[in-house]
Design goal:
Elements: H1 5-13, E1 15-16, H2 27-34, H3 47-59, E2 64-68, H4 71-82, E3 87-92, H5 96-99, H6 104-109, E4 112-116, H7 125-128, E5 141-148, H8 161-173, E6 177-182, H9 185-192, H10 196-202, E7 205-209, E8 220-224, H11 226-238, H12 247-260, H13 264-279, E9 284-285, E10 295-300, H14 305-314, E11 317-318, E12 320-321, E13 326-330, H15 337-351
Parallel strand pairs: 1-11, 3-4, 3-5, 5-6, 6-7
Antiparallel strand pairs: 2-8, 7-8, 9-10, 10-13, 12-13
Bound molecules: pyridoxal-5'-phosphate.
């Protein structure tokens, strides 16, 4: 039985743009996994994950890192260590934490979420003005500002350094801590050129994922101060996320950072080129300014998103409905040049 067979089939048949999480480990990645030095990480004896946590924490200007199974766990651990039950967090209404984490902030940390409408999933101090509460006994205590970079539902947009600076200033004035959901921070760094260490200056906790565009099979990391990470480690164990020979996964994630991060440039180039084809299609609508990284969100002018996604499926193209009229396509490194050419050709034929 070959683990590679499904990928070959996938390559031949489907142009799968449903998500950048659908990529399979490459042969080279599997090789580094097999040869990783491992130990029991519940005893902190897995040197591969220890080295990797240190490396990523240093890269982002943070004291410590904690390897976790998913971006969801990483975000939820961050909120847990930053807040007290009954606190309120400010977050953009399209964000993953608010929409796609099964109400975890309420269930796991007893938090109230105040969703705020931003622009393409992004917030700024003007939008956030007067949103912080807690002056009176009867108000919730707003303690955390949660940002997403790049935005997912916002269309892969990212914050500029100036925007981040303004938000940091605002948060300091308002005495808010910042959690940054950086599931696709690698795309943001690629697109903006902002150094990773800068995010450690902006945020109190940062969550990064290796299983999105970087293409590792599993793994995210929470980054923060040593004290907070120590606390998060206890909750990770409580929530069933303490792992044993996790160096296998850390080795894959490290390989992804080293070898797949540089490939994101090409995903971004393709997303822009595809966005232009969508823009030139009479039956589709897009705000091309929103295409900054590997995600392309567009609207269908005829029929519903579900109908168009089914039509595309018949043409060997997979995307996801993201609203009644809205579709998302996400680019990743396991789309070949010929598949990309076929994608553009099919769209030009079907929707012009
Ligand atoms: C912005 C963002 N944050 C967090 C997550 C959660 O990651 P996971 O699926 O690993 O839990 C995702 C997943 O797609 C995401 O897009």
């Amino acid at each position: 039985m070959s683990i590679f067979l499904p990928l070959e089939k996938l390559k031949l048949n489907m142009i799968d743009l449903r998500s950048d999480t659908i990529t399979r480990p490459t042969v080279e990645m599997l090789e580094v996994m097999i040869s990783a030095e491992v130990g029991d990480d519940v005893f902190s004896e897995d040197e591969t994950v220890n080295r990797f946590q240190h490396k990523i924490a240093t890269m982002f200007g943070m004291e410590a890192g904690l390897f976790v199974p998913s971006g969801t766990m990483s975000n939820q651990l961050a909120l847990k260590v930053l807040t007290q039950p009954g606190d309120e967090i400010l977050i953009e209404e399209k964000s993953h934490v608010y929409n796609y984490e099964t109400g975890g902030a309420a269930f796991l940390s007893g938090l109230q979420i105040q969703p705020v409408k931003g622009v393409h999933g992004k917030l700024d101090p003007d939008i956030l003005e007067h949103r912080k509460r807690g002056e009176f006994d009867w108000e919730p205590n707003t303690t955390v500002l949660c940002l997403e970079n790049t935005t997912n539902k916002g269309g892969g947009t990212c914050y500029s350094k100036e925007e981040l600076n303004n938000l940091k200033q605002f948060a300091s004035q308002e005495e808010l801590m910042i959690h940054l959901d950086g599931a696709r921070i690698w795309n943001a760094i690629t697109a903006t050129g902002i150094d990773a260490s800068y995010f450690g200056k902006i945020a109190d906790t940062v969550s990064v994922c290796f299983s999105k565009g970087l293409g590792a099979p599993i793994g995210s990391m929470l980054l923060s101060s040593g004290k907070r990470i120590k606390k998060a480690r206890r909750f990770r164990k409580m929530w069933g996320g303490g792992m044993r020979q996790v160096g296998l996964l850390a080795a894959a994630a490290n390989y992804a950072v080293e070898h797949h991060w540089p490939l994101l440039v090409e995903d971004h180039r393709r997303a822009k080129a595809f966005g232009e084809v969508v823009h030139n299609s009479r039956k589709l609508e897009i705000d091309t300014n929103s295409v900054e990284t590997n995600i392309v969100i567009f609207d269908v002018l005829e029929g519903t998103a579900i109908e168009v996604v089914s039509l595309l499926e018949e043409e060997g193209i997979r995307m996801v409905p993201f609203g009644p009229k809205t579709i998302r396509a996400t680019f990743h490194h396991q789309i070949s040049n010929s598949q990309f050419a076929r994608l553009l050709e099919t769209f030009s034929t079907l929707f012009s």
